[in-house]
């Protein structure tokens, strides 16, 4: 049925949309291509096989721990909130996504200090018991635990969204056929949720593999810290890029999993009738247990580490002027970067529909470790610096470069929600517009985008939050005197002054939290049958 | 326009917000509001620095006050800085490069990113072993990489050499950070230079055998672990110890009660030291200002700020040392030129890998 469209656009050559998509793909792929080219350069092999295996093993173990941890926690929270009624459910429903507001390095600061051998917990235990138990979070286990708590919201959100798209009739049929609550959960709900769990877990694992801030602070040596080590100690960008290739490969696999599971979900959504699921009341101790579980999750994922950091921060005088400047800087970057990334990702989503390979390639940037992207970004940045008079000096050129860097790294993050939003617009609607005389670009601008505007806003806000937390590209490419909150936090942490690092860290969370909560509310509004 | 209607108010608000945010941005020229109040505009000096201490901000302000030259800066780790300078090439705006490790500074010089700075003041003020033989970089603050120890369990003479840190006396009783750290790499580089690779490898193996826990945290965390009784000795930079000993935080002072700083000696010649160094960028567009800035770092005022605020030892001949750190600053320093650290970095890292020092 798309035959007439294709014939028409072929006759006229590529539409403006297709050109825009190509441009967007170029921006997104350039750093990754540069990084791969760096990796292929001949260079001294300073890395021994056992060391490589140790890094890869740690990355794999961490990914496995987070896959299990984040999935179990996120699924439990999603099913509790999505299918049950218990005291405090409304509040919990929107607070449960809040840990996404905190950069992982901030959680790592808080936990490492809390559980340090000279920290409050071990010190008081030593005082009370005479011995201190080994509660060290600066370990593989600690990192697995902290990252699970940081990333369970991905699974929580995908599960909530999936439940919102399920029709009540399936569950009712199961119950009328005599299935118990446990049987319904095991035989009906969990199989239905499988694609959502896979998608959420894939996102959590992708973030885990690319994480540098938390693992390096916790002293866990993974492929990402290996990348930085190869770079900073051996001075070998080629070695660094080579170490990153397995990560890019893993990202490709994870994206494929995520995409496949989303396809399943969409077809369900199309069929689902708007009969919202009835919430099962949890009375007495069950309700209380559900509440305690949710409060515990939010407490461990956000309140405890942040509360401790805030407590530490209160003992020092913050450099208010610098914080205000850094806050202003990062807001400028996040707004501009969010807008540009949204534009590029939209062009790619609309114009790249006939070239899915291009879109998928552009998606790889998201899961590539920031340090590797930074290596890759330097090559195109070098062209700008050397080719344009004054570009290496100027503030404007510096900001532009950073915004482009964010766009190339985060286009994939924006692509996911935009793609999902556009899939809800059926081809028939676009066809109707075309038959009424709209061009392909016109149909996209005047029909499809307005219908998917909720998804566009979601995408822009996701990028906004990621830019708030971004570190490696900002550190490396920023212009003179242009610090962000994350840069300041990192500087204090490197100087081993956690109390000072607490202030910028908390500010990041304070700015991001309302946005995260708003995004989460979008999900729960969909759950009540309100689509946009 | 339909597209505009689609975003209607949100877009308007967003654009308005962006415009509001960029107004102060355009006005402030990206630097710390230092545009009108300088005595006379004598241009700028563009600084790339890997240091991250508050003392430095005070020194920049003092420099602008004294010379009218504004300081524009970007802070980033040494490896990122080296790559950025490479990518910028001839177009690089960098005038002065500051790195808190003689080894990494040597790598920058080796990569052709620095040029000799012709300044008699710098050459006469900074002792030969604290600067590059070709005068491409000059150390302006010094720190000793020494030992914090539990005075209840360790006698000072048990740690008066680096060899003793690897002896069975401290099996399971030593804390040290990981081997990515430039200060550890430069320490092992110096040991290789003195002892040769075999003996240095044996030493590193002994230290690994003595570790009370897998390497983790920064130097401050190692000192705290001594205070908490998890280890008896910890390898640390001197300024972290001095900062904690003088801390206003009650918990820090409490934990520091029984912790002392010991200065092991390398073959009887002195302790291993490192410097923060400033180098003249290869393509410095403001060359005269750059040299003026480097000279300022070694003058009495700046040397005093680094000592007071960051607890680093001065490198300039005859610079004053605050009373509370005079004893520590007077300890003998290994006379090996620090330019020897750079070429040994990769070898040191290979030894760390081989002996399992993570």
From TrEMBL, chain A:
Pfam families documented for this protein = BPD_transp_1 (PF00528)
Recorded hits in CDD domains, A to Z, give: TM_PBP2
Its annotated compartments are: Cell inner membrane; Cell membrane
> Which parts pass through the membrane?
56-81, 93-112, 139-157, 196-220, 240-257, 288-310, 330-351, 363-385, 391-408, 451-468, 501-519
Q: Which residues form the ABC transmembrane type-1 domain?
A: 56-256, 327-519
For this protein, the record's Gene3D superfamilies field holds: MetI-like (1.10.3720.10)
Topology with regard to the membrane? Multi-pass membrane protein
Q: Which InterPro entries match?
A: MetI-like, MetI-like_sf
**Keywords for this protein:** Cell inner membrane, Cell membrane, Membrane, Transmembrane, Transmembrane helix, Transport
The domain of life is Bacteria
Give the family from UniProt.
Belongs to the binding-protein-dependent transport system permease family.
**Name under which the protein is recorded:** Iron ABC transporter permease
The organism encoding this protein is: Peiella sedimenti
Automatic annotation (TrEMBL), chain B:
Pfam families recorded for this chain?
A: SBP_bac_8
Question: Which keywords, in A-to-Z order, does the entry hold?
Answer: Signal
- Signal peptide position in this chain? 1-26
The record's annotation in InterPro entries points to: Ferric-bd, SBP
Q: Which Gene3D superfamilies match?
A: Periplasmic binding protein-like II
The Swiss-Prot or TrEMBL record describes its family as follows:
Belongs to the bacterial solute-binding protein 1 family.
This chain belongs to the protein called: Extracellular solute-binding protein
Origin species, per record, is Peiella sedimenti
């Amino acid at each position: 049925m798309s035959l007439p469209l294709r014939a028409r656009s072929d006759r006229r050559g590529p539409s403006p949309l297709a050109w825009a998509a190509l441009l967007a793909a170029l921006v997104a792929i350039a750093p990754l291509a540069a990084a791969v080219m760096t990796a292929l350069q001949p260079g001294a092999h300073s890395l021994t096989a056992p060391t490589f295996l140790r890094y890869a093993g740690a990355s794999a173990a961490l990914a496995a721990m987070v896959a299990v941890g984040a999935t179990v926690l996120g699924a439990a929270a999603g099913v509790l909130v999505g299918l049950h009624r218990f005291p405090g459910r409304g509040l919990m429903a929107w607070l449960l996504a809040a840990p996404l507001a905190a950069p992982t390095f901030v959680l790592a600061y808080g936990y490492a200090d809390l559980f340090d051998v000279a920290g409050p917990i071990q010190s008081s235990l030593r005082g009370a018991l005479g011995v201190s138990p080994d509660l060290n979070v600066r370990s593989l286990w600690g990192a697995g635990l902290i990252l699970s708590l940081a990333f369970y919201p991905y699974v929580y959100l995908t599960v909530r969204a999936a439940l919102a798209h399920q029709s009540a009739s399936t569950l009712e049929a199961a119950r009328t056929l005599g299935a118990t609550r446990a049987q319904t959960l095991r035989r009906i709900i969990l199989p239905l949720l499988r694609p959502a769990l896979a998608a959420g877990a894939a996102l959590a694992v992708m973030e885990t593999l690319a994480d540098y801030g938390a693992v390096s602070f916790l002293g866990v040596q993974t492929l990402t810290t290996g990348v930085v080590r190869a770079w900073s100690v051996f001075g070998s960008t080629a070695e660094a890029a080579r170490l990153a290739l397995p990560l890019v490969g893993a990202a490709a696999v994870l994206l494929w999993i995520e995409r496949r599971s989303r396809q399943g979900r969409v077809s369900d959504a199309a069929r689902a009738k708007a009969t919202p699921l009835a919430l099962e009341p949890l009375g007495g101790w069950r309700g209380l247990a559900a509440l305690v579980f949710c409060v515990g999750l939010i407490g461990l994922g956000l309140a405890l580490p942040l509360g401790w950091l805030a407590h530490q921060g209160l003992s020092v005088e913050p450099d208010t002027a610098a914080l205000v400047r850094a806050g202003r800087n990062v807001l400028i970057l996040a707004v501009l970067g969010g807008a540009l990334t949204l534009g590029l990702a939209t062009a790619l989503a609309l114009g790249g529909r006939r070239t899915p390979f291009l879109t998928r390639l552009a998606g790889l940037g998201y899961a590539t470790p920031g340090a590797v992207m930074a290596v890759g970004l330097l090559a195109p940045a070098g062209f700008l610096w050397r080719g344009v008079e004054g570009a290496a000096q100027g503030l404007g050129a510096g900001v532009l470069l950073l915004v482009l860097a964010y766009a190339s790294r985060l286009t994939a993050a924006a692509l996911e929600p935009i793609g999902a939003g556009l899939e809800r617009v059926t081809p028939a609607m676009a066809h109707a517009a075309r038959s009424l005389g709209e061009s392909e670009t016109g149909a996209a601008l005047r029909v499809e985008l307005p219908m998917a505007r909720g998804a566009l806003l979601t995408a822009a806000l996701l990028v906004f939050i990621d830019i708030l937390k971004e570190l490696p590209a900002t550190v490396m490419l920023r212009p003179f005197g242009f610090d962000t909150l994350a840069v300041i936090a990192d500087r204090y942490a490197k100087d081993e002054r956690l109390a000072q690092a607490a202030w910028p860290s908390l500010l990041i969370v304070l700015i991001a939290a309302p946005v995260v909560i708003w995004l989460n509310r979008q999900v729960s509004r969909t759950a009540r049958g309100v689509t946009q | 326009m339909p597209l505009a209607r689609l975003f209607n108010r949100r877009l308007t608000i967003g654009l308005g917000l962006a415009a509001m945010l960029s107004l102060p941005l355009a006005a402030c020229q990206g630097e710390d509001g230092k545009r009108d109040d300088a005595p006379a505009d004598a241009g700028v000096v563009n600084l790339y620095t890997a240091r991250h201490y508050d003392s430095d901000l005070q020194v920049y302000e003092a420099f602008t006050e004294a010379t009218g030259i504004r300081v524009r800066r970007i802070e980033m780790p040494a490896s990122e800085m080296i790559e950025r300078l490479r990518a910028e090439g001839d177009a690089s705006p960098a005038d002065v490069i500051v790195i808190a490790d003689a080894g990494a500074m040597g790598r920058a010089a080796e990569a052709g990113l620095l040029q000799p700075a012709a300044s008699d003041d710098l050459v006469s003020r900074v002792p030969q072993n604290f600067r590059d033989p070709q005068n491409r970089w000059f150390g302006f603050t010094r720190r000793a990489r020494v030992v914090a120890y539990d005075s209840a369990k360790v006698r000072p003479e048990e740690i008066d050499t680096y060899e003793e840190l690897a002896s069975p006396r401290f099996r399971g009783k030593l804390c040290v950070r990981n081997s990515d750290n430039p200060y550890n790499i430069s320490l092992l580089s110096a040991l290789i230079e003195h002892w040769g690779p075999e003996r240095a490898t044996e030493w590193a193996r002994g230290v690994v055998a003595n570790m009370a826990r897998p390497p983790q945290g920064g130097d401050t965390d190692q000192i705290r672990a001594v205070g908490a009784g998890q280890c008896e000795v910890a390898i640390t930079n001197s300024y972290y110890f001095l900062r904690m000993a003088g801390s206003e935080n009650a918990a820090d002072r409490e934990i520091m009660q029984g912790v002392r700083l010991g200065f092991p000696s390398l073959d009887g010649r002195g302790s291993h030291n490192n410097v923060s160094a400033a180098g003249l960028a290869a393509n410095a567009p403001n060359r005269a200002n750059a040299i003026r800035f480097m000279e300022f770092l070694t003058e009495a005022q700046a040397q005093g700020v680094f000592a007071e605020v960051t607890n680093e030892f001065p490198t300039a001949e005859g610079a004053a040392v605050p009373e509370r750190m005079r004893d520590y600053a007077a300890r003998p320093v290994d006379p090996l030129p620090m330019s020897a650290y750079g070429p040994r970095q990769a070898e040191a890292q290979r030894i760390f890998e081989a002996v399992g020092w993570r």
